[in-house]
Amino acid sequence: MKKSIPSLLLSLAALAVSATASAQSAADIESMKRQLAEIKNTKQHEKVNLENFDDLDFNVYTGQKWDQLSKSHAKDIVVHYPDGHTTKGIPAHIEELKPMFIFAPNTSIHEHPIRIASGEWTAVQGVVEGTFSQPMPIGEGKTIPATGKSFKLTMVTIGHWNGSVMDEEWLMWDNQALLKQIGLAQ
To answer: Which residues pair with 158 in a beta bridge?
Structure first.
């Protein structure tokens, strides 16, 4: 009996350790399941934001469907432009987008060679193409005659998403490269 008591105690201790480890393993597994669900949710949200961004450039911008801009932009969006100025709100942003279509009505974006999403952020490189085929208004009723020259320009947009719309956007492209391509700069 003396030998069986230590053996029994040892067996009980092993059982207790095993039960504790099993409970901890179950808790760890549940924690990992929650983390995996969060990661899946984030990845799905990132995928939707990138799809929304593709639609923004390929359909809304290219087609000048300004009434659909609210599908991807918050009504009070802050937009930062390459020259350093900013606008606030969809109407002001639209007014900044329209002039390109006056002198290059065939302006379009049909590809995003680089698309990155991380949580509430996206960074997308687009290729803007068009032809300087109409006079370019420069103010006070003056225009620059069309040169007929085409342009192909890479641009990058960084967007901060709040839910399903961007609340802040940074647009970057090389204005000097654009002017050179359309024949207005050396």
So the answer is: 123, 170
Q: Is the dihedral of CA 40, 58, 174, 80 positive or negative?
A: negative
CA distances from 117 to 11, 37, 58 (A): 53, 18, 18
Please name each of the domains of the chain with its CATH number: 47-181 (3.10.450.50)
Q: What is the distance between the alpha carbons of residues 123 and 57, in angstroms, rounded to a whole number?
A: 13
What is the pairing mode between strands 73-80 and 165-173?
A: parallel
Residue with tokens 């207005």: 184
Tell me how far apart the alpha carbons of residues 126 and 36 are, in angstroms, rounded to a whole number.
32
- In tens digits, the chain (186 residues) has pLDDT values of 556 776 766 676 776 666 666 667 878 888 888 988 898 899 999 999 999 999 999 999 999 999 999 999 999 999 999 999 999 999 999 999 999 999 999 999 999 999 999 999 999 999 999 999 999 999 999 999 999 999 999 999 999 999 999 999 999 999 999 999 999 999
